[in-house]
Specification:
globular, alpha/beta
């Protein structure tokens, strides 16, 4: 029995879009596209990608065993392994392409040219993309049939896989666009061809790849490179690169933020409720918005700007924003004997500063302990940015600051040079076991623990041991 009910395309379509040589039945119908053989089901097209540690070609037979009806493989690989590949039966096909990743992207682009129903919204920026995407989808979902990026499938692999979920029956598609190399945004824009783009901010994320913030802004601006006259770009009103981002496209640029929203609303007020999020009041509605920090308030205004443009009422904006939930590892509040702010999905200079400032702003009876891990992908800027992080930590209201990771040694040295008789107690280690031991040894009930670092530092490892130290032993 076919698990997927909607045909995406045929093998003949796929070869027409991607080129290469086809072996097998060109009339086979494809119902899903996968790059993980374990996710293949009946009717899947398996794309054999070669990564740093795993080669998808090694799992070709596993994909077929799981029900895949076709596969895109490297032409070079196929020429070397043709004798090992079983004869292609009538119910399967193989595409031997010059580059399977390029084939995936071309197939996705060809598929999207058939999709005419939904308005396509691309969401990009140095930080806040995933949260803003979720908020936009939530508010639009109060009125329209919406499809969105699952998780953070936003890359040159994730985005083409995502677009196969878009159907003509959808009214809006809210798709995240993330990049970590020069030229990648052009690939994503060519596939999605967005009607609207929301750029959350231009910051230091991936600055080691793009070398400087100006180049980052340029690459993000490529998201609107294929705009028609009716295209709409939404940019934070406080974005220093706002004018630059609005240049060079034939569509319209709309600013969003407190001032912009206030000009269109009656009695706009925003009350910071700390760990409870925000209360946003306007037009006789009161929104209890559960996400913390000024950065998430800005994300909410971005969603409201898109919602207003799409014709949503104030009540619909309220309903959508109140359904927001913190994403795992992103400004997530974990209540318990120790209150934890888990913000370790990623880190850069901007987001670290935001996290520390938010924790500083909280009135707290217990101690404040900040664990700050390395920030990655900073390249030649790493030393300067970690030095600045040390200054931020030294000036914070923390009682203790733990620096973790080889790069964070620079932050510790700078903080130690500034903290004399007054200021937080400072600790440094590059060994996780030592970090865990030292953090746990000083924790007391009622403390506040901020955990901030890049994803590769795996600082969420602290969550379980912190929770366990206050578990009462069973009799």
């Amino acid at each position: 029995m076919m698990v997927n009910s909607a045909v995406l395309f045929t093998a003949n379509d796929a070869i027409g879009w991607s080129g290469g040589e086809i072996l097998g039945n060109p009339e086979i119908r494809v119902f899903s596209v996968e790059v993980d053989s374990r996710k293949c089901t009946e009717g899947s097209l398996f794309i054999a990608l070669k990564g740093e540690n795993v080669d998808g070609h090694d799992f070709l037979q596993a994909a077929f065993d799981n029900g895949a009806c076709g596969a895109a493989v490297s032409a070079e690989w196929y020429s070397l392994h043709k004798a090992e590949v079983k004869p292609v039966p009538a119910e399967r096909f193989i595409i031997a392409a010059e580059d399977p990743l390029s084939a995936l992207q071309q197939i996705a682009s060809g598929y999207m040219k058939r999709i005419t129903g939904p308005v396509r919204i691309g969401v990009t920026g140095s930080s806040g993309k995933t949260t803003t995407k979720e908020l936009i989808a939530a508010v639009l979902g109060e009125k329209y049939n919406v499809v969105k990026t699952g998780g953070n499938y936003n890359s040159e692999i994730g985005l083409p896989l995502t677009v196969f979920n878009i159907k003509n029956t959808h009214e809006y598609a809210v798709i995240e666009m993330g990049i970590n190399r020069v030229g990648e945004m052009d690939v994503l824009a060519e596939i999605l061809r967005p009607d609207m783009v929301v750029i959350t901010n231009i910051g230091t994320a991936h600055i080691g790849i793009f070398k400087n913030i100006e180049k980052t802004a340029y690459e993000k601006r490529r998201s609107v490179s294929l705009f028609a006259k009716q295209g709409v770009l939404f940019v934070d009103e406080e974005e220093s690169f706002g004018s630059f981002l609005g240049e060079g496209h034939s569509g319209t640029t709309i600013s969003y933020g407190f001032k912009s929203f206030k000009s269109e609303s009656e009695n706009l007020q925003c009350k910071d409720c700390g760990l409870e999020g925000w209360v946003i009041s306007f037009d006789d509605v009161e929104i209890k918005f559960p996400l913390i920090g000024i950065h998430n308030l800005k994300n909410a205004f971005g969603a409201c700007a898109v919602g207003r443009y799409a014709g949503l009422s104030s009540e619909q904006l309220k309903a959508g924003l109140e359904k927001a939930v913190p994403l795992s590892g992103r400004s997530q509040i974990i209540n318990g004997p120790v209150t934890i702010i888990q913000d370790c999905y990623n880190a850069n200079a901007d987001s670290l500063n935001q996290s520390v400032k938010f924790a500083d702003s909280l009135e707290w009876d217990g101690s404040k302990i900040y664990v700050l891990g390395d920030m990655k992908e900073l390249g030649e800027n790493s030393r300067d940015i970690h030095t600045e992080a040390g200054r931020t930590a030294a000036a914070s209201s923390a009682d203790k600051v733990f620096f973790f990771g080889e790069d964070s040694a620079e932050a510790y040295r700078e903080a130690a040079s500034l903290v004399k008789n007054a200021g937080p107690e400072l600790y440094y280690t590059s060994e996780y076991s030592e970090l865990e031991k030292n953090v746990l040894s000083g924790l007391q009930r009622g403390d506040l623990l901020l955990i901030k670092g890049s994803r590769s530092m795996n600082l969420e490892r602290l969550l379980e041991p912190v929770a366990n130290i206050f578990v009462e032993e069973k009799c």
